[in-house]
Amino acid sequence: MARHEEPSRWAVLAIILAVVLIPLNSTMIAVGLEPVAQALRVPEPSVVWVITAYLVVMAALQPISGKLGDLFGRRRLLLLGLFIFLFCSVAAASLPNLLALILFRSGQALGGALVVPSAMALLRQLFRGESLRHALGTVGLVQGMGAALGPLVGAALIHLGGWTYMFWINAPIVALALIIGAKHLPPDAPSGRRPIDYWGALSLAGFLALFALSVPHKAAHFSATQVLFIVLALVLLAVFFWAETHSQDPVVRFAIFRRPPVINSNLAILATNFFMYSTLLYLPVYLSRHGDSTTTTGLLLFVFSFAMSLTSYLGGRIGRLLGPRRIISVAFSFDLLVVLWYFGLSHFSEMAYLLPGLIIAGIGAGIGTVTMQATILESVNPAMAGTASGIYSTFRYIGSITASAVVSLMVLSPSAHIIILTTAALLGFLVLSGFPIHAKEPSDLGLRRSAGG
Fold it and tell me: First and final CA of the chain: distance in angstroms?
């Protein structure tokens, strides 16, 4: 079978080039809000929608794009996503207008949402067992480095040629990924066309979008509009559950969650990403209140992100030796140490205290992620790898969105901060029993049964 052949290094390079764009563009824009606002002569809070739109679209569309990849071909979806990303990057750089920037930034997210689940599913198709964990670790390292370097790259590009360079830089990377991917990615297997679950897809996208839009960014209370968004989101969630139970080929087969490794991997990445984004969002506020410069904040966040990226790569290998359950318990043990570190922040703010804490936080955020992702991919039928990857990515974004929802409360109340973070860490320990003790590659027959068809 083709999937047992030695994977092409060029195919892996195409996947790496494709997925590094997503975290790079997520963090690079953060340093460009003020320059964009000045260049377009708009208030800086209005430019925040450039980030919010990206987050909303990515969260809403990934489970749907994963399903489409399973139906119509992962290679086809990945290349289409790259083309959309390229077009929207060029358009955003060419049209200096806030509305156009938000629109094409959303288009970037659409392209990214098509790329990520298909890329992860292609890795599942190309690799097995320990090789899969190694590949996921390598891709995770590249993604983490993209996120870590994003602010530094963004600042350098703005200095060289202005904020539009943050969009022009995507063009050569995407073009190279398209050329290599078109030639070296494995061809899509022929599959019969099945009806698309439009009601399920639209209601799920609407629910996730409204959930993201209901996040209070400036205060710890909800406005009337945000309450309305929550109500509408719950209505769409009910529609989604109805649609999935009545569709012949639903976007999400609920049977996939009957396997403990699937539901627990998703909950674990939700808690992990919540912890990670809590640090990314809380620390700049804390450092600003203590008089630290933007440069100092950027360097400290780079240390955190670098530690996370490096241990994500190493964690894939260590997890194979220790077993999934043990490595996940190590990850959330580090998170508990971070809670203690936060408790001491009210007494110690010196660099000698900040750096070790951020390194520990980075280890906790990175060391278990490859095992979580490998566990869910190995627990479903390979034909459903795109769907599973899309759902996994959505749980990850829900963790990020939830962190942004409560960060203002954590800033205002140190006690609430400790309680919230402790709760997130304990959630990680609660799902440990759903992970296998030993890492092993299930048989194809077992995969088919675990996927519920």
Answer: 21
